[in-house]
C-alpha cells in the first residue's frame, strides 16, 4: 500500500510541476517576444533489490524552449522593431549581457534606449545605445540607428550606431528566471551582421493558447486520477485493517 501511495503521489507531483509551466506560458501570451517553455515527464521503472521491476515512477524535465517565431504585428512606432527569422537583441542586466526577442523599446531619463523592463539595449560595441535629446529615431533593417534632430533636413540624418544583433545556436542559450536568455558560458556573443530586423513591428509570444488550454485540462484529469489512486489505497488499507481486527 505504501508503494502504491508513493507511486501515485510522485505522479501527481510531476503533473503539478508541468501544470505550473503551462500556466506560466498562458500568463505570458501577451508578452512581446516570449518563448514558450517546454516541459515533459516520463516513466521510470523502479527495481527491487533483486533487480526485478516493482513499480513505475515519473520524473519531470524542462528540455528547453520553443524557439519558433511568433506572429509579427505592425505598430508603426519608431522605437519598435522585430527580428526577422533567427537572432536576438542584446541587453545589459545586473548579471551581465542577456538576449531577448522583445523589441518594444523606449528611451529612459538618461537618454538610453531601453526595453520595457528598463534594461539598456546594447550597441554592436557592447555599450548602451545613447539617443540624442529631441531626436527622431529610426531603425534600418540591418540594425543601424539613425536620428534626425528637430528642424533638421532629411539630408542631415545621422547614424548614431548599430544595435548588437546576435545569433547563437539554441543549445548555447539558457533561459533565466527573468525570461531573458543567456549563454551557458560567461563569454558574450559576437554581433552577427546577417541578422535583420523589421522596423515598426513587434513579435508576439509564440505560445499557442488553444494547445496550452488543452494541456491544462489534460493535466487536471491526470491529477484527479492520481488522487483517486491514493484514495483507493487508503480505502484498501482500512478494509485490510478491519479484516485483521476481526480475525
TrEMBL record:
Subcellular location: Bacterial flagellum basal body
Pfam families: Flg_bb_rod, Flg_bbr_C, LlgE_F_G_D1
Limits of the Flagellar hook protein FlgE/F/G-like D1 domain: 82-147
Gene Ontology biological process terms, A to Z: bacterial-type flagellum-dependent swarming motility
Annotated ranges, domain Flagellar basal-body/hook protein C-terminal: 199-243
GO CC term, one of those recorded: bacterial-type flagellum basal body, rod
InterPro entries cross-referenced by the UniProt entry: Flag_bb_rod_N, Flagellar_FlgE/F/G, Flg_bb/hook_C_dom, FlgE/F/G-like, FlgF, LlgE_F_G-like_D1
Signal peptide: none
PANTHER family linked to this entry: FLAGELLAR BASAL-BODY ROD PROTEIN FLGF, FLAGELLAR PROTEIN
Family: Belongs to the flagella basal body rod proteins family.
Protein name per the record: Flagellar basal-body rod protein FlgF
Originating organism: Allopusillimonas soli
